[in-house]
Amino acid sequence: MSVIDNWQQWKDFLGDRLDQGQQQGMNKETVNQLAYQIGDYLARQVDPKNEQQRVLSDMWSVADKDEQMAIAHVMVKLVENNSTQQ
Fold it and tell me: Which of 9, 27, 53, 60 has a CB 3.0–4.6 Å from the CB of 48, allowing a cystine?
């Protein structure tokens, strides 16, 4: 099973990558820009594997760039909060 097949595994994976980036000195602006780029790539290239990813994909497809940046920022906050609660 791929990491993108399961929503919790996907969030854990993103949280781990976020932690690595922050440990290597990435600032919040860089993290958010990278999250936007990943979100854009996923929306264009990867078929959603679960309901949560489908919702994000649908929202991404109707959002303008500023709204997509907001979605990416919220995903960063989600995995930040998820990793601090464990």
Answer: 53
Structural domain contains residue 2: no
Residue ranges, the chain, pLDDT below 50: none
* CATH code of the domain covering residue 35: 1.10.760.20
Is 56 part of any domain? yes
Summarize pLDDT for 40-60 with one digit per residue, the tens. 988 999 899 889 999 999 999
* Within a domain: 72: yes
Q: What pLDDT was estimated at residue 86?
A: 52
Amino acid (one-letter) located at 75:
M
Confidence (pTM)? 0.82
> How far lies 19's CA from each of 8, 30, 36, 41, 77, in Å?
16, 13, 17, 21, 12
